[in-house]
Design goal:
Elements: H1 2-32, H2 37-67, H3 71-78
């Protein structure tokens, strides 16, 4: 009787428990990678803000191109615009 209990406990601790723990942590890791609803909304807001900023920058560059034709060359030569980016 004692040998049967020892065999069952040994199988439980050597095979079942490590397997269960591995699958438990894998499942938690997979579910943790997903964004929550609030994070998804924040990401959408950030993407919309970035798109608006990109549109504004393009508009400002078009205005500067019309008003000050050589501004890109002057700014990059002085390191004020493109020279500091990167």
């Amino acid at each position: 009787m004692s040998d049967n209990i020892t065999s069952i406990l040994l199988a439980l601790f050597v095979i079942v428990l490590p397997t269960w723990m591995t699958f438990q942590y894998l499942t938690k890791a997979r579910s943790g990678r997903r964004m929550s609803e609030s994070e998804a909304q924040m990401m959408d807001q950030l993407l919309q803000t970035a798109a608006r900023m990109e549109t504004r920058m393009a508009t400002l560059e078009r205005i500067l191109d019309a008003e000050v034709p050589g501004w890109r060359h002057t700014a990059s030569a002085q390191g004020d615009y493109y020279g500091k980016m990167g």
